[in-house]
Amino acid sequence: MPKLIVEDLELRFGGVRALDRLSFEVEEGQLCALVGPNGAGKSSVFNCVTGLYRASGGRVLFGDRDLLPLPAHAVAAAGVARTFQNLALFPRLTVLENVLLGGHLNERAGAWACALHLPRHRRAERSLRRQAHEVLDRLGLAALADRPAAGLPYGTLKRTELARALMARPRLLLLDEPAAGLPHGEVAELGELIAGIGADLGLSIVLVEHHMGMVMSISQKVVVLNLGRRICEGTPEEVTRDPEVIAAYLGAAA
Ligand SMILES: Nc1ncnc2c1ncn2[C@@H]1O[C@H](COP(=O)(O)OP(=O)(O)OP(=O)(O)O)[C@@H](O)[C@H]1O
């Protein structure tokens, strides 16, 4: 499993420096949180890493590759999956169908086998469905597999999006505010689910999240950003003691 190295990452929008030579590392199997006030640059990191934004400078090494020059599909093929701040599900599709969409990347039957519905394609399809049911089971969604996404509770949809990301069998998972909008009582449960999946699958996870209780209870490492720069990193205990963090973020939020 490769580690993630973000090195001197820069992103500018006209005169705004969204990311200002940002560097941090995520070890194999580590759950690393990126926190900071609104506009600190957290989503911009994800957008640069996944090829949605073109960084103005720096490198993002994952294993032996620099992800920055790659188009989004090649970043996904390199083993990086993400979820979005706002749900990106198809409301008319069922939970299972939405989750299956995350797996087609790994479907190796090939275009002709698929078009002609050859046995190879049918085998690949069966294996994908098996994998989807395993993921749904793991996320407590099995009973809802055939329900359309539209109308399901927000927490269920958040878990569906997580399930879809896992279908790509990622080695690195980027979670953008997975707990945003969740009822207070469901936040801790989602945190435990995320930490459990990371540990079970040996996944590296980068978590952007404003729920400090969740961040501090499940992260092994916390990187604090402000104005596109890293102002501190360490264990949850270390960052909560850092005066600059207290001034820039935790103090402001308290
Ligand atoms: N597409 C864009 N065009 C112009 N400016 C942008 C764009 N995306 C982000 N920015 C700016 O870049 C900076 C970082 O924004 P970003 O969304 O990465 O912050 P964030 O830490 O994710 O904030 P939040 O916690 O509110 O989601 C902000 O000043 C923002 O206004």
From TrEMBL:
The record's section on SMART domains has: AAA (SM00382)
- CDD domains this protein is in? ABC_Mj1267_LivG_branched (cd03219)
Q: Which residues form the ABC transporter domain?
A: 4-252
Name the residues that span the membrane: none
- State one Pfam family annotation: ABC_tran
Keywords associated with the record: ATP-binding, Nucleotide-binding, Transport
Family matches, as PROSITE patterns:
ABC_TRANSPORTER_2 (PS50893)
Keyword Nucleotide-binding on entry: yes
Family matches, as InterPro entries? AAA+_ATPase (IPR003593), ABC_AA/LPS_Transport (IPR051120), ABC_transporter-like_ATP-bd (IPR003439), BCA_ABC_TP_C (IPR032823), P-loop_NTPase (IPR027417)
The molecular function terms in GO held by this entry are: ATP binding
Q: What is this protein called?
A: ABC transporter ATP-binding protein
Q: Which organism is it from?
A: Actinomadura rugatobispora
